[in-house]
Specification:
With about 300 residues, the chain is an all-alpha fold. It is about 70% helix and about 0% strand. It contains 14 helices and no strands.
Length: about 300
C-alpha cells in the first residue's frame, strides 16, 4: 500500500483491525500468506463484513436496511473510477481493486443478495440453500483467487475439483450458520432448509423458541457431520502451489475444530457462539505457520 498516503494507510489498518477483532480465524489464515497480499485480503474481508452488518442491523426496519445496503453498493461503484472513498473500508477496497486489477462488477450479484436478504430467507431444500450460499460466497472467494493470480501464484481449479471447491464452501457456510445460530435465532432467522429440519420433527419449533431438545440435538449432530464431510476435500489442493494449499488445509482444520466446538456446546449453542479452545487453535496454527513460511520461501 502507499506509504505516503496516511488516509489510505489508516483505511487498511482499520480493515486489518476489524478482521482480527471480528474473525480471528480468518485473520490467522491471512497471516499465512505473504505480507504484500494481506492488506488486499483484509480489505475484501472488511468490505464483505461491512455490507453484511448493514443488512443485519436489526435496530433498523427491513426497508431501511435494504436502502443502506443499496446506498453502500451505489457509492462503491461511483467511487471505483476515482480511486478513493470517504468511507475507510470502501477506500481500502477501491485501492485494492485498482492495485490488483480486480473486477468488482463480479461481486454485483453477491452484494445485491445481501440487500435481498433483508426481507428474510426461507429454504425448502438443500438445492435452494446451496444456490443462496454459493451465489454469495463464490464471487468473494473468486476475488481472493484473483489476488493470488496477480501475485504470480495462480490458484486454478481443475475441472474435476470444481464441485469439490463449491462443496467446501457449502461446508464453510454451514459451519458459520451453526456457529451463529444463537444470534440468528434472536433475530428471528433460521437459515437451514426445511428438508433438513423435517428429518427431525419438532426441531424447527424448538429452535424458534430457542429451546434445546432431543430433536434439536439430533439435528445439530446431523448437520455438523454433514459440514465435516463437505469441508474434507483432499483432492482440492492436489497439484496446487504449496502456499495456498497450506491456507486451504489450515482452513479445513480450523473448520473441523469449530464444528467440534459446536458439538460440545450442547444447550449453550442457543445462547452464544461456541469457540475452539486456544490450545486447539495453537496446535493447528503453529505447524501451519512453519509450513507456510517454507512454502513461500
Amino acid at each position: 500500500m502507499n506509504g505516503d498516503d496516511p488516509v489510505l494507510r489508516a483505511a487498511y489498518r482499520l480493515c486489518r483491525r476489524r478482521t482480527k477483532d471480528q474473525d480471528p480465524a480468518e485473520y490467522a489464515l491471512i497471516q499465512l500468506v505473504p505480507a504484500a497480499l494481506r492488506p488486499a485480503l483484509h480489505a475484501l474481508w472488511a468490505a464483505a463484513n461491512a455490507l453484511d452488518d448493514l443488512g443485519d442491523d436489526r435496530t433498523a426496519p427491513a426497508a431501511e436496511r435494504a436502502a443502506r445496503v443499496e446506498a453502500w453498493i451505489t457509492a462503491l461503484h461511483r467511487e471505483l473510477p476515482t480511486g478513493s472513498s470517504p468511507d475507510p473500508v470502501r477506500h481500502a477496497l477501491v485501492d485494492t481493486a485498482n492495485r490488483w486489477r480486480l473486477d468488482l462488477s463480479e461481486l454485483r450479484d453477491a452484494m445485491a443478495q445481501v440487500q435481498d436478504d433483508t426481507r428474510g430467507r426461507r429454504f425448502a431444500d438443500w438445492a435452494e440453500w446451496r444456490a443462496w450460499g454459493r451465489d454469495n460466497l463464490l464471487p468473494w472467494f473468486g476475488q481472493v483467487r484473483t489476488v493470488f493470480d496477480r501475485a504470480g501464484v495462480p490458484v486454478a481449479l481443475r475441472l474435476d475439483t470444481r464441485e469439490a471447491y463449491e462443496e467446501f464452501l457449502d461446508g464453510v457456510r454451514l459451519t458459520d450458520i451453526l456457529t451463529d445460530l444463537a444470534a440468528d435465532l434472536a433475530q428471528g432467522d433460521l437459515l437451514l432448509p426445511a428438508e433438513a429440519l423435517d428429518l427431525h420433527p419438532g426441531s424447527a419449533a424448538d429452535l424458534a423458541q430457542r429451546r434445546w431438545s432431543p430433536a434439536v440435538a439430533a439435528l445439530v449432530k446431523h448437520l455438523t457431520g454433514l459440514a465435516r464431510q463437505w469441508v474434507t476435500q483432499e483432492s482440492l489442493t492436489r497439484g496446487m502451489h504449496p502456499g495456498p494449499a497450506t491456507v486451504l488445509d489450515t482452513m479445513a482444520a480450523l473448520l473441523h475444530a469449530q464444528l467440534d466446538a459446536v458439538d460440545a456446546a450442547g444447550p449453550a449453542l442457543l445462547r452464544s457462539p461456541p469457540r475452539p479452545a486456544l490450545g486447539t487453535r495453537v496446535r493447528i496454527l503453529a505447524p501451519a505457520r512453519a509450513r507456510a513460511a517454507l512454502a513461500w520461501s
